[in-house]
């Protein structure tokens, strides 16, 4: 078990709080670890969890949340696959008197009455850390540094914000230029396909910024298939810090991995306990996370939880 057993929240019903959770899908190692963390923490906290997987489709998330509303659960939580298109659905939950907690990815709404709190990473900071590493790495090199960007799922908060944070950071050195970008949908297969396209279209790519490890590991395969050395001929920066990502970093096939912590489960159950016992919660709870270079990856790899 992780950090000890979580306090069982009070709240409605003698046999534990009923939480309906709508999860994005099973697209990446990060996502699988996130789901496990929520399930594990619910068990520890005595929360009755109904978790539904949406296979990356917003309409599946809406259907699941409507089922939670008609089942009159005590609280709803979800990771919105994309930022927009949630207002009507969240108004239905509010009108039914069911509090909503947004986790991981953010919704783009101005109506703050539609959810009580947002628990998740600062994706802009993650993108900025990736860009800052490249600025530092190429500080003494003059001449163009040609970068390609494999973006996360189009319309998702992590894709939008990692792109923005990265672009902001590389402004510090005009030699750093993004010469191509494509949607890798946070998967290894799509990442490989997008990278193969970049390699066919551009000679002399210097670096890749992949919005998650799975896409970056797909890019590694495409780069090797093109007869080049990932991590040496072409530098690769990714986000998540999953075990596979850190293993590739330790072996020098990736160069820098920014952490995006999926283990939100126990913080979520604490918020569920507070929300269902009328306690106030902060509007925003940011998850702690760091970044890894090769040495740091070697140091943590042996006991990485996911
Ligand atoms: C980030 C999360 C992203 C991960 C991807 O919090 O939404 O979605 O970076 C996952 O691995 O698919
Ligand atoms: Zn535990």
UniProtKB/TrEMBL annotation:
Gene3D superfamilies reported in the protein's UniProt record: 3.40.50.2300
Subcellular localization, as worded in the UniProt entry: Cell envelope
GO cellular component: cell envelope
Pfam family, one: Peripla_BP_4
Source taxon at top rank: Bacteria
CDD domains for this protein: PBP1_galactofuranose_YtfQ-like
Keywords for this protein: Signal, Sugar transport, Transport
PROSITE patterns with a match to the protein in the record: PROKAR_LIPOPROTEIN
GO molecular function, one term: carbohydrate binding
Domain Periplasmic binding protein: 20-279
Keyword Signal annotated: yes
Assigned protein family: Belongs to the bacterial solute-binding protein 2 family.
PANTHER family: D-ALLOSE-BINDING PERIPLASMIC PROTEIN-RELATED, GALACTOFURANOSE-BINDING PROTEIN YTFQ
Protein known as: Simple sugar transport system substrate-binding protein
Native species: Actinoplanes xinjiangensis
